[in-house]
Specification:
The protein has six helices and four strands. The chain has 180 residues and is of the alpha+beta class. It has a domain of 91 residues: Orthogonal Bundle (Multidrug-efflux Transporter Regulator, Chain: A, Domain 2). The chain has a four-stranded antiparallel β-sheet with strand order 1-2-4-3. The radius of gyration is 48 Å and the shape is rod-shaped.
């Protein structure tokens, strides 16, 4: 792998080692257009690290030398000698995208959670008000008896004599039916 500025490029052999594929597989992918790369004047290939990661994601293998990311211990990450920065940059870019997506999802879930909590609080308030109204209706004091029509009942009886009308006996159904 060669470092050209910020871009990391792989040779055919280093691309095969990084991806865990054979050199023939990588070469076929270049020829078919599945993988893009540039051919040098001497006939060798150079493949961009991001392009390689897109077409063939790296697979874990034993690393030949210690990595600065693990405190100098050997890692199980697929990296070639001197190429830890190239594969790390690709992996970091992928991880950053995944992290941003996860953070956006968490933010959406947090907004939904707040809306649900506000709805629950509103429903609790409405329930408390309804309970208060029901309790007020159930524990309403009994009304006092209606006052008498006349202040002096004796005067009301003597002021206007009540004349009783004679009560007619009602005719039975059969009598009415037969016209009797």
């Amino acid at each position: 792998m060669e470092a050209l500025g910020n871009a990391m490029e792989y040779t055919l052999a280093s691309a095969a080692k990084t991806t865990g594929m054979g050199k023939t597989t990588i070469h076929r992918a270049l020829k078919s257009g599945k993988l893009s790369g540039r051919r040098l004047d001497d006939g060798s290939w150079r493949i961009d690290g991001a392009e390689l990661a897109r077409a063939f994601p790296p697979v874990p293998t034993e690393q030949a030398e210690p990595s600065p990311w693990n405190g100098g211990e050997q890692s199980g990450t697929a990296m070639e000698e001197g190429g830890a920065a190239g594969a790390s940059a690709t992996e970091l870019a992928v991880l950053r995208v995944k992290l941003e997506a996860a953070q956006a999802k968490i933010a959406d879930m947090d907004r939904e959670r707040r809306i649900i909590l506000e709805t629950v609080d509103d429903l609790r308030t409405r329930l408390d008000r309804a309970e208060d109204r029901i309790l007020a209706l159930v524990h309403r004091p009994v009304a006092a008896p209606a006052p008498a029509l006349a202040e002096k009942p004796a005067e009301a009886l003597t002021a206007a004599p009540v004349v009783a009308e004679p009560v007619r006996p009602s005719r039975s159904f059969l009598a009415r039916l037969l016209g009797l």
